[in-house]
Amino acid sequence: MAGLSLACCGGDDDREKVDVGGGKKTVLQQEDKKPDSAHGGSGGTEQAVTPQERQARAKVKLLKERLAKTTDSDDRAEILGEVVTLGAHAMSMWSEVVACFKDEEPFTRGFALQAAAKVNPTSCRELLEQGLKDDEAEVRKMAAEAWCQAEIKDLAPLLDIVPNELEAQVQMAIMVAVEKHGQKYHAAQVTKIMGDLDSNALKPAIRFLVEKGEDAPAFAPAIAEYLDRADLDLRVLAARSIEKLGFKNKAILTKLCSTLVDEESSVRKAGIETLRKLTGQDLGYALEDSEEERAESEKEWRDWVLKNG
Question: How many Å is the maximal CA-CA distance in the chain?
């Protein structure tokens, strides 16, 4: 099933939706009811169905037939993966997509959620919320990815489950959605849940705060807590993020001093450049110094912060 891997966010251009009898139908479906001037119809000025649209309709018909015949969950997942590529062209398969969410196999249920997000992004929320509550982590992850694909702006259902979500892959999918679609008003809630996040999920959370957050005095101290984490990339990201936020206090500067003796040169580089920018000081620190010299420089920096920070 590796060939069915889907991108987390982004999507096909949605076709215009119109209300018809209380339901949503695509322009493509309405065209089915119009005379086809290319086949002798009296359509007048109505446009003929394009070859691309005709091809999409044929594929939808074929997928419907395959889905109706198969009794294998893997086959259903494969078919749903093809439905995803059709997007709104497959609106006539909406009921079949919803039915596949009842499949016994988690992977198939997950693909049903992602197909729902692409086929009918304006009406899939209820189904995705069910997916976020699924017992299987794989389904919850794919539900969060589908939420991102559908570009649902209300992220509260995602953020609310983070404190009780122990699976790193689910946390990651949620925070990627937040990074892509989150708004400034989400920043405060993101700050509150950072302590619950896996190191990989922290990275999109921090990037979101730097990009969308306006309250640097609140965010910078929270980010500084990750300057000494085991994850190398997280330490570098934390230092660079503090640099971008441009906020300093004695506690933050003191934590930055610890980066000067980090075993990784990339962390030391990020740390000293951030200290220099925030303080306007240099104090003779050099990346190529020996371990003993770096330790002495750290002490000098700590003394300076104690007196001037």
Answer: 89
Other Cβ atoms within 10 Å of 157 Cβ, number: 17
Is 139 found in the same domain as 62? yes
> Do 203 and 272 fall within a single domain?
no
Query: Distance (Å, rounded) from C-alpha 125 to C-alpha 172?
Result: 20
**Model-wide pTM > 0.85:** no
In a domain, 1, yes or no: no
What is the separation, in whole angstroms, between the first and last Cα of the chain? 56
Print the domain residue range for 308: 215-309
User: Using CA atoms, how far apart are residues 244 and 202, in angstroms rounded to an integer?
Assistant: 17
In-domain check, residue 93: yes
**pLDDT tens string 129-188:** 999 999 999 999 999 999 999 999 999 999 999 999 999 999 999 999 999 999 999 999
pLDDT band at 47 (very low <50, low <70, confident <90, very high): low
Helix pair 137-149, 125-132: axis angle to 10 deg: 150
Query: Which tokens go with 295?
Result: 């330790």
The three-state DSSP-derived secondary structure of the chain is CHHHCCCCCCCCCCCCEEEECCEEEEHHHHHCCCCCHHHCCCCCCCCCCCHHHHHHHHHHHHHHHHHHHCCCHHHHHHHHHHHHHHHHHHHHHHHHHHHHCCCCCHHHHHHHHHHHHHHCCCCCHHHHHHHHCCCCHHHHHHHHHHHHHCCCCCCHHHHHHHHHCCCHHHHHHHHHHHHHHCCHHHHHHHHHHHHHCCHHHHHHHHHHHHHHCCCHHHHHHHHHCCCCCCCHHHHHHHHHHHHHHCCCCHHHHHHHHHHHHCCCHHHHHHHHHHHHHHHCCCCCCCCCCCHHHHHHHHHHHHHHHHHHC
